[in-house]
Design a protein that fits this description.
- The protein contains 17 helices and 22 strands.
- Strands 1, 2, 3, 4, 5, 11, 13, 14, 15, 16, 17 and 18 form a twelve-stranded mixed beta sheet that branches. Strands 7-6-8-9 form a four-stranded parallel beta sheet, sandwiched between helices. A four-stranded antiparallel beta sheet has the order 20-21-19-22.
- The chain is an alpha/beta fold.
- 41% of the residues lie in helices and 20% in strands.
- Helix 1 links the parallel strand 1 and strand 2.
- It is elongated.
Length: 630
């Protein structure tokens, strides 16, 4: 069995999902394994931190992959022509097949688009009488895009249609960009100077149709619009969209077949396979006869599933913002991944976060630990904390993914830091949700400071606690820091948090009715109540949070990396464990506490001021508690 890596930009667009399906189908037929790596090219400039996806390329090595399938046009779309070959050749440490672009000296599978593009232009000119045609295209160095531009200009020349700069409209690949650009050029219906728009992608075409509808321009009666890529929704749009099918699934299949030939017969040398593109004529160009039965129930079901998935993701984000112990975080993550249909998954973390700037070379660490691992056999706790060298193997040898299913690999990062990576078998949820899911996981790894809870640092914390006790900084009744110890450690914790670019919260708590408990039941029972309150804290707060008894019935906690919604989650969890205590422990008192919170930042980090503000807000909550008791 050979292991093939397919490098794609995402799994959201039909272009990539069809390519993956073609390669997967070949691998299933021949008994090979397909691993899909979600990547961006080096120095990627779209999105503030999307360039971080490039780090996943470093996870591919001779020891874990036998060959690479590369979606070259998207991988190199922002690179100047002279850099494209260099970018691709960086990946040729194993046999490589380029999909979508021909690279000298390498095997490639390409689409023959020029003929199909001219056929489409002839169709809207001869079949629908359009003479004032414009081309909408991205400003790109992609050979494929430039080929379409050249075909457009050649066609105009062949038909003696004058060419000038107004014949080409530049817009990025997105729906919103196409719509905005077209409305800027033609803000009124009378500004329309064309009777057909031929675009370089279906998303551009849909954006143009939306803009024309806004201008009360009828498509196709007044203006014909065509796309490129033949996305699935072309069949169900209104009007249905004329497009060009590049037979991407066929390209994926043939590329995998060619790569296996290159692996097994390296002496054969590079080969080139050309797949002809096919125009698909639908209603948007003016063809009336095209129709397809629309499954309304399926459409509504997809909308409902999307709403449910987004609602689930919203709750996932809220839970991830809470102050979680490592055990709680792992349990929460596994539950949510399974809820999203992921059947097998391994998450690995580097020993330390790795800084990776947009102009830097990423250096893959030689050590990573398994955080979670689960498959059809359940949660594999025996694999947790397994140490790997990701430069050689990114997955434990004994872990099994589902047979005949694609394995997706992606980096885990937050802003400029790489935390590790994930490998999983995706389910039936929309692929973009998985990217969002693991983006949120990267943020949680940073904000909850889970990295600080590694075994070595936990031991260091135990040593610090021993030193604190020796220095009389610990409260003898509860075992947490006393006022002196809290003030020392809290200042250090806040300073460290701010150095890492993270704010956090200072919480002040005052137990409710402790004086009454002491007066009516005695101070011994009062001490039991104080100790019980600290036990509640230990169940809710992390080991890295700073807890102190400020005197009597008052407590303070520093929680780095927490947001306002995270504090609300803490309050709910504290109420839950407290209610459980009151129901099950059969004590002669009711345990309760009022909490106030304030947040620290670079501008506001004086511990004395923060404690005062939090105490004032606690006092307001205590007044509410007293009213509720009456």
């Amino acid at each position: 069995m050979k292991k093939l890596a397919l490098l794609v930009q995402d799994l959201d667009s039909d272009y990539f999902t069809l390519m993956v399906e073609g390669a997967r189908r070949y691998c299933v037929e021949k008994g090979h394994q397909l691993m899909v790596f979600i990547i961006r090219s080096k120095n990627w400039r779209h999105g503030s931190f999307d360039y971080q996806f490039y780090a996943a390329t470093s996870l591919i090595s001779k020891s874990n992959i036998d060959g690479i399938l590369l979606a070259t046009n998207t991988y190199c779309q922002n690179a100047p022509e002279e850099k494209r070959i260099e970018l691709v050749r960086e990946l040729t440490f194993v046999p490589l097949v380029s999909i979508g672009a021909e690279i000298p000296g390498l095997s490639s599978v390409v689409s023959e688009n020029k003929t199909a593009f001219k056929q489409l232009l002839s169709h809207i000119t001869d079949g629908h009488g359009r003479k004032k045609i414009v081309l909408m295209m991205p400003l790109s160095t992609s050979v494929d895009i430039i080929t379409r531009k050249d075909a457009f200009i050649e066609f105009l020349n062949e038909r003696n249609i004058p060419f000038d700069n107004t014949k080409i409209i530049y817009a990025d690949y997105t729906f919103e960009e196409a719509k905005d650009v077209l409305l800027q050029i033609c803000p009124r219906k009378e500004d329309i100077y064309f009777d057909a728009i031929v675009t370089c992608s279906d998303d551009l075409a849909f954006g143009c149709i939306s803009a024309l509808h806004e201008l009360n321009v009828s498509v196709p009666n007044e203006v014909s619009v065509t796309g490129f890529d033949n996305q699935r929704r072309c069949d169900y749009a209104d009007p249905t969209l004329t497009s060009i099918d590049q037979q991407i699934e066929v390209q994926g299949y043939e590329a995998a077949k060619l790569l296996l030939d290159q692996i097994e017969n390296p002496e054969n040398g590079p080969k080139r396979i050309s797949i002809p593109s096919i125009p698909i004529y639908r209603n948007s160009c003016g063809c009336k006869e095209y129709s397809i039965e629309r499954n309304i129930f399926r459409d509504e079901e997809q909308i409902l599933r999307r709403k449910e998935t987004l609602a689930h993701f919203h709750f996932f984000l809220q839970e991830m913002q809470a102050s979680l112990s490592l055990t709680e975080f792992k349990s929460l993550l596994i539950r949510n991944l399974k809820d999203y249909g992921i059947t097998s998954c391994v998450v690995c973390l580097y020993d330390d976060p790795v800084y990776f700037g947009i102009n830097d070379e990423f250096s893959l660490p030689d050590s990573a630990k398994v955080l979670i691992a689960f498959n059809k056999n359940g949660t594999l706790e025996q694999l947790e904390s397994t140490v790997l060298n990701p430069q050689k193997n990114i997955i434990p040898a004994e872990f099994e993914f589902e047979a005949n299913k694609t394995i997706v690999v992606s980096s885990l990062f937050n802003t400029s830091y790489q935390y590790g990576y994930v490998a999983y078998n995706p389910g039936s949820v929309e692929p973009r949700m998985y990217e969002l899911l693991f983006s949120a996981t990267g943020i949680a790894l940073a904000s909850n400071r889970l990295i600080s809870l590694k075994d070595e640092e936990t031991k260091q914390l135990e040593n610090v606690n021993q030193n604190l006790k020796a220095a009389s900084m610990t409260d003898s009744l509860t075992g947490v820091l006393n006022r002196r110890g809290f003030m020392t450690v809290a200042e250090a914790s806040i300073s460290k948090s701010l150095e890492e670019g993270k704010g956090g919260a200072v919480i002040y708590g005052d137990m409710d009715h402790l004086k009454k408990i002491n007066d009516e039941l005695g101070h011994d029972i009062g001490d039991v109540a104080i100790q019980a309150e600290v036990e509640m804290f230990k169940k809710v707060f992390r080991e890295s949070d700073v807890i102190g008894r400020m005197g009597g019935d008052e407590f303070a906690i520093v929680v780095p990396g927490i947001s306002e919604s995270g504090f609300e989650t803490i309050k709910k969890r504290l109420n839950t464990v407290t209610e459980e205590y009151n129901k099950t422990q059969n004590q002669p008192f009711i345990l309760s506490i009022s909490l106030g919170v304030t947040y620290y930042s670079e501008e506001n980090h004086d511990i004395n001021v923060l404690l005062k503000l939090a105490d004032e807000r606690q006092y307001e909550e205590k007044r509410i508690h007293h009213k509720e008791r009456k």
